[in-house]
Design brief:
By secondary structure, the chain is of the alpha/beta class. The chain has two domains: 224 residues, Vaccinia Virus protein VP39 (Rossmann fold); 32 residues, no CATH class. The chain is built from ten helices and eight strands. Strands 1, 2, 3, 4, 5, 6, 7 and 8 form an eight-stranded mixed beta sheet that branches. Helix 1 crosses helix 2 and helix 7 packs antiparallel against helix 8. The two termini are 29 Å apart. The N terminus is likely disordered. The chain binds S-adenosylmethionine.
């Protein structure tokens, strides 16, 4: 695998690896990629990665900086233009392919069973049919490949609205089938953990294999006032707390309060 050598690449990877909102997810995604790579006949060969709704490349560029070949599928031309600029800046243009398309069209972008790792982060909230999108993700994965699904969780918004004094909106989000706090909620849909796991399993993605991970992300980061996280020590301690609370073996219920749920699921043999 080509080792990144220039400063912009290190900085870009450092961003995703250290920013409180992305560090825990990057840790799991990069660990999953490393495990998939080690399991290949040629452990140095880059992975084929698909980032569905990859937007401006916040995840695709660091993955390409690790040497992987990443295809970003996104319907937004503006996002893809920003991705191109980011890839150029990071020196990974040759390892990123951008395709303007919808999640439902994945099979027309890459062949079935051809991808090692599919990332679908912050997208299932927006697609017309989440089950169809997860099915398309499963179809393009090779057997044993991994899907990384990151979604907004319902209970986090219940807590956030309540702490903001918007009690009626908190109740609305508790009961609304789409997990929205009202008509003005900008997010079309939120999930409960059981929904995401059921979607994955129905598509042939195992959430119980060795490589699988289910953890809560950003349990406290969005709630703690910034003034309380104004030093490197405080940021490190907060990240450690997030890591521990996101999938604590004795307190699994904590994960359901996190802003996002991150599920890594493995494509079952066809
Ligand atoms: C919240 S952003 C997430 C971007 C990126 N994945 C991340 O985690 O930072 C949602 C992205 O999904 C894309 N998107 C919206 N609807 C989509 C669809 N039907 N299929 C694929 N991508 C979609 C948007 O253009 C946008 O880039």
């Amino acid at each position: 695998m080509a080792a990144p050598s220039d400063a912009p690449r290190r900085a870009r990877r450092g961003d995703v690896a250290s920013a409180p909102r992305t560090a825990a997810v990057w840790e799991v995604v990069s660990r999953t990629a490393a495990a998939l790579q080690r399991a290949q006949p040629d452990a140095d060969a880059p992975l084929t990665v698909l980032d569905v709704g990859g937007g401006t490349g916040g995840l695709a560029v660091p993955l390409a900086s690790l040497g992987h070949h990443v295809t970003v599928v996104d319907p937004s031309p503006d996002a893809l233009a920003a991705l191109a600029r980011r890839a150029e800046e990071a020196g990974v243009v040759g390892r990123i392919t951008a395709v303007q398309a919808d999640a439902a069209q994945l099979a027309q972008v890459v062949g079935p069973g051809s991808v090692d790792l599919v990332c679908c982060h912050g997208v299932l909230e927006y697609v017309d049919e989440p089950a169809e999108a997860v099915g398309a993700v499963a179809d393009v994965l090779r057997d044993g490949g991994a899907a990384s699904l990151l979604v907004a969780q319902r209970l986090a918004v219940v807590l956030a609205r309540a702490l903001a004094g918007r009690f009626a909106e908190a109740v609305h989000a508790l009961d609304d089938p789409a997990g929205r706090w009202g008509m003005a909620d900008p997010l079309p849909r939120r999930f409960d953990a059981t929904d995401v796991i059921a979607l994955a399993e129905a598509a042939g993605l195992s959430t119980s294999s060795d490589l699988a991970v289910v953890h809560g992300v950003r349990l406290f980061s969005d709630l703690v006032p910034e003034a309380l996280v104004d030093s490197e020590d405080a940021r490190t301690a907060l990240l450690d707390l997030e890591r521990q609370a996101g999938d604590h073996p004795d307190h699994p219920e904590l994960a359901s309060l996190a802003a996002q749920l991150h599920v890594v699921a493995v494509r079952e043999p066809r």
